[in-house]
Amino acid sequence: MSIKNITVLGSGIMGHGIAQVSAMAGYKVVLRDIEQKFLDKAMEKVKWSLQKFAEKNKISKEEVDIFYNNITPLVDLQTAIGSADLIIEAVPEDFDLKKKVYQELNSLAEKNIIFASNTSTLPITELSKLTDRPDKFIGVHFFNPPQLMKLVEVIPGIGTDSKVTEEVTNYINKINKRPVICKKDVSGFIVNRVFIPMVHEALYSMERDNVSMEVIDSAVKYKLEFPMGIFELADYTGLDVVYKASYEMNLRDKAVLLLHPRIKQLYDSHDLGQKTGKGFYEYKGDNYERIDLTPEKASKYDPYSIIGVATNNASWLIDNEVCTIEDLNIALKLGMGLKMDIFDFFKKNGPDNIMNKLLELESKYGSFYHPNQYLYSIK
User: Fold this and answer.
1) Residue 355 maps to a domain
2) pLDDT of residue 287
3) Domain range spanning residue 372?
4) Which of 39, 41, 347, 352 could cysteine-pair with 73, CB 3.0–4.6 Å?
5) Model pLDDT, residue 25
6) pLDDT digit string, tens, across residues 33-75
7) DSSP state letter for 275
8) Which residue in the list 22, 117, 118, 192 is annotated as catalytic?
9) For the domain that residue 263 is a member of, what is the CATH number?
10) Is residue 340 located within the same domain as residue 245?
11) How many CB atoms lie within 10 A of CB 284?
12) Together in a domain, 176 and 198
């Protein structure tokens, strides 16, 4: 088993980004979409991105053409997968759409081809059952944008052959990304298991403690040393992404987050964050505007419940042997921009205060806040 030729299905932001980073590593890539106009737009973006790399002296001007020409855009599916060793599905995060794609692939793809889904939340084992090769099916969750983000979560399903996991992990290393293995196919995988519940908890905190978004975001940025506030990060990620991840995670595991209705309201009103000009905050112009977060605002609030929920879910991942502590910390640093290990946040911000807050919330709002046993072991 050796991966040389790759087909990427779907030429959107994730699809053409995955195609580009694979082409830059010397792989021959076919980028497939259902209409030529989508492919033309994607290839324009690939050329622009490669030229930006050249302007910053990260690649040579000659390499722009070499890497660009490593990608072949095609509409016909059978031709697109003809020489593939690995097919990466990067279509929108819709289970029914993915089901349709895999039904079509089953009838056309050779039995030795590995199928990989770039899903951010859909269960890999569930998706693998849509195919005729659960043993050759795996999750590869790239982060947006793939050209810049180093992290890739690798998620084997229950039936995934260990050799497939090894081959795909080798591929991730060869494209100069950092793979982390999610050893169990759990809701949210690693990063979203920590990040998404924090967004909902920040909303509850705002209501329960009667504080503003800017105060909470300032506290998260300056007291927890996040690269930006949690509402700001959600807007940057896209509230469509947050909503769909929340929905899928909650559908499959009621214990993973406490849903706040505001996320669905924003999604339904198409206020999706920076991309639409409005989400939790309003944005003007094409350039990303930073929210006015200050240490002074941060001093007005202790985000004990937010860090409590984050470390509780991180503890659950370790307690259930979903990943190693090393991979957990690497995933959160590369995927969320954390500056220190997650449990160091816990220790730095007062373990007793955080635990007491979780116990107080458990008494009022139920077992979601029950402290994980692992937190007691590191307190």
Assistant:
1) yes
2) 60
3) 191-378
4) 39
5) 97
6) 999 999 999 999 999 999 999 999 999 999 999 999 999 999 9
7) G
8) 192
9) 1.10.1040.50
10) yes
11) 8
12) no
**Domain check: are 336 and 240 in the same one?**
yes
Identify the active-site residue in 120, 305, 315, 372: 120
DSSP letters for 146-179: TTT--EEEEEE-TT--HHHHHHHHHHHHHTT-EE
341 and 292, same structural domain? yes
**What is the spatial distance between Cα 182 and Cα 47, in angstroms, rounded to a whole number?**
33
Question: Do 89 and 126 lie in a common domain?
Answer: yes
3-class secondary-structure state, position 324: coil
- In which residue are the tokens 């001007």 written? 61
Catalytic residue among 89, 93, 153, 201: 153
Same domain, yes or no, for 29 and 170?
yes
What is the C-alpha to C-alpha distance for residues 197 and 258, in angstroms, rounded to an integer? 7
Using the structure block, give the residue that is written with the tokens 């509230």. Answer: 239
**Active site includes 120?**
yes
CB-based contact 272:237 (threshold 8 Å): no
- Domain count across the chain: 2
- Catalytic pick among 22, 93, 117, 141: 141
- The answer to whether 153 is a known catalytic residue is yes
Secondary structure of residue 74 in the 3-state scheme:
strand
Active site residue 141: yes
- 134 neighbors 160 (Cβ within 8 angstroms): yes
